[in-house]
Design brief:
6 strands, four-stranded antiparallel beta sheet, alpha+beta, two-stranded antiparallel sheet, globular, 4 helices, about 130 residues
Length: about 130
């Protein structure tokens, strides 16, 4: 679901859809927290991303909706659910943990960021 971050950019890939995310937002924490909330409450996982110049929204429960937030909003409905996306995010974040730990944190804070990401991954795994 998440590509390895390179030069401040990464992509969220779901099915044939590839949407970019920027280092201006804490992407791993946003996704992990949204999935934790969705799996521990009756809420839908809901995250909006600023892709620097445009924005898009991911909503996931039994299906996933990707909405491009432009003047003429466009929504794609995918048959993948929140549990499958949550597993993919955990695997992708753990695979590239070093890169995500340096993603959007202040210099010298990568270890704190790493600990937070690991804690969120562990919390989400317990809910799956």
């Amino acid at each position: 679901m998440l590509t390895r971050p390179v030069h401040g950019w990464a992509e969220v890939c779901i099915g044939e859809h590839r949407l970019r995310v920027s280092h201006i937002e804490p992407v791993p924490e946003m996704l992990l927290t949204a999935f934790i909330r969705a799996l521990s409450t009756p809420e839908t996982a809901d995250v909006t991303f600023d892709a620097e110049g445009w924005a898009w929204r991911l909503q996931s429960d039994r299906v996933t909706r990707l909405t491009i937030l432009e003047a003429a909003a466009e929504t794609y409905v995918l048959t993948i659910g929140v549990r499958e996306l949550a597993r993919e995010v955990i695997a992708d974040v753990r695979r590239d943990l070093d890169a995500w730990s340096h993603w959007c944190c202040l210099p010298g804070r990568a270890e704190d960021q790493r600990a937070l990401i690991i804690r969120l991954c562990n919390q989400l795994e317990r809910l799956l």
